[in-house]
Design brief:
Helix content is 24%, strand content 19%. It is an alpha+beta fold. The protein has a 6-stranded mixed beta sheet, with helices on both faces. Strands 4-3-7 form a 3-stranded antiparallel beta sheet, with helices on one face.
């Protein structure tokens, strides 16, 4: 039986500028858990923790702490130096426990623990130059045009920062190498349509002011911030689902811990929930070796 989670030091300020306490943060996670958990379920989870809030030290955590309660589920994945026991978040209690640990960002892998070698989601990470969200939107619409031409069903969300993610749930019919190839091929197709706007260059100095598409997000060891996850930023922004029709009017700063619980019945969250319940699609042959 999973016990109730006690919030320790509930008045600790995690986002001081907005007076968001740990208690308020755990309440936020509870409010979004119904929408968020399906995208975390059975996935190895990496976390950004900030025990003293966003103004203090923060670090990236993969290993589940040894002091974690016995009811916290994990999955162990071999790594280069040692095996890593990732936390698996399948229920609201685990989500609350992680919130109490000041885990401020949730980054699931594109695989589930029963078939680590078979990914089930493809992500296009759209990274624009600083303060160029309009360019990210332009590229997102281009990616959506390409995926529609390929017959793919895709979803859109803000990253909680300056970029966007296009996400396609897929059948587990390719390896991690196959997923990386498909993501790279999709990037090439988009870049070929607008070479003046899109680049795959990782280093900012080599991008020439263009918007980067990052196919490296698509591997067993890679992660992408989860929908509804906050970001460890002063403004408490959240990665939030939107529809393609909403993109041109979207302000990513509008989606925060304070606002998102009241936005869960918008078209974006509904679309994500509907797709999560559908049978996943195969990656189109045009993207495979």
């Amino acid at each position: 039986m999973t016990p109730a989670v006690e919030v320790t030091n509930p008045d600790k300020l995690l986002w001081p500028a907005l007076e968001i306490t740990k208690r308020r943060y755990v309440d936020y996670l509870d409010a979004v858990s119904g929408r968020m958990l399906p995208w975390l379920r059975d996935r190895p989870l990496s976390l950004v923790r900030a025990p003293d809030g966003v103004t203090g030290e923060r670090y990236y955590q993969k290993d589940t702490p040894k002091y974690a309660p016995s009811w916290i589920k994990t999955v162990t994945i071999p790594a280069v130096r040692r095996d890593v026991a990732y936390t698996v978040c399948n229920d609201a209690a685990t989500l609350a426990w992680l919130g109490n640990q000041a885990a401020l960002e949730f980054h699931p892998a594109p695989v589930r623990r029963d078939k680590i070698e078979r990914p089930d989601v493809l992500t296009v990470d759209i990274d624009p130059p600083d303060d160029a969200f309009d360019a990210a939107v332009e590229v997102a619409l281009l990616v959506l045009e390409v995926t529609e031409d390929l017959g793919m069903r895709t979803l859109v969300k803000t990253t909680g920062g300056k970029g966007l993610h296009i996400v396609a749930p897929i059948r587990r019919h390719v390896s991690a190498d196959g997923l990386r190839f498909a993501a790279g091929r999709l990037t090439e197709i988009v870049q070929d349509r607008r070479p003046d706007l899109v680049t795959a260059e990782f280093r900012k100095k080599d991008r020439g002011g263009k918007v980067m598409l990052d196919p490296s997000r698509n591997s067993t060891g890679a992660t992408v911030v989860a929908p509804y996850s906050p970001r460890a930023r002063d403004d408490a922004t959240v990665s939030f689902p939107v529809t393609p029709e909403e993109l041109t009017a979207t302000d990513p700063a509008a989606f925060t811990i304070a606002t998102v619980p009241g936005l869960l019945d918008r078209k974006g969250p509904i679309a994500w929930s509907e797709v999560e319940r559908e049978s996943p699609q195969r990656i189109p042959r045009a993207l495979l070796p």
